[in-house]
Amino acid sequence: MQWHHLLCAAGKHAGELKETLATYDGDVPDREALDKAIEDAIKKGHAKPAGFPYIDRAPTGRAKCMQCEAAIPKDSFRVAVEREIDTGAMVTRGAGYMHPGCVVENLENVGGSP
After folding, report:
1. N or C: which end of the chain has fewer CB within 10 A?
2. Backbone angles phi, psi at 12, to 5 degrees
3. How far from the centroid of its chain's Cα atoms is residue 37's Cα?
4. CA 13 to chain centre
5. CA-based nearest residue to 44, from 31, 34, 57
6. Cβ–Cβ < 8 Å for 82, 95
7. CA 34, CA 18: separation in Å to the nearest integer?
8. Any idea what the Cα angle at residue 61 is, between residues 12 and 37, rounded to 5°?
9. Each residue's pLDDT tens digit in the chain (114 positions)?
C-alpha cells in the first residue's frame, strides 16, 4: 500500500477516495478543493480505477505487453491486470499490461475464460 497526500490521491485514486469520503463523517480540511480535484481527475481520465482488470491509455510508450512482449505505444489502449512482481527480496503484486488484442490469447494460456 502506498501513502499519498490527499490532493495527490485525488489525482491518482479519485474513485476510491470519492467512495471513502462519501462514508466518512469526520472533518476533512479543504474539502471543497479536494472534491474539485477528484471531479477534475475523473473528467480528465487521469484517475486510475480501484481494482483489476481495467483499461486505460498508455501514458508513455515504455510498457511491454505481457503476452507478445511488444511495446504498447503511447496513448493507445492497454488492459491492466494484476500480476506478481518478484523484486528479489520479496514478491509483491502490481499491474501488468497487455494490448487489448492479446488478452484472449493470454487467458487461453493461463486457463482463464474470455
Report:
1. N
2. -95, -35
3. 18
4. 8
5. 57
6. yes
7. 9
8. 20
9. 456 688 888 877 788 888 888 888 889 888 999 999 888 887 776 666 667 888 888 989 999 999 999 999 999 999 999 999 888 889 988 899 999 999 988 888 876 655
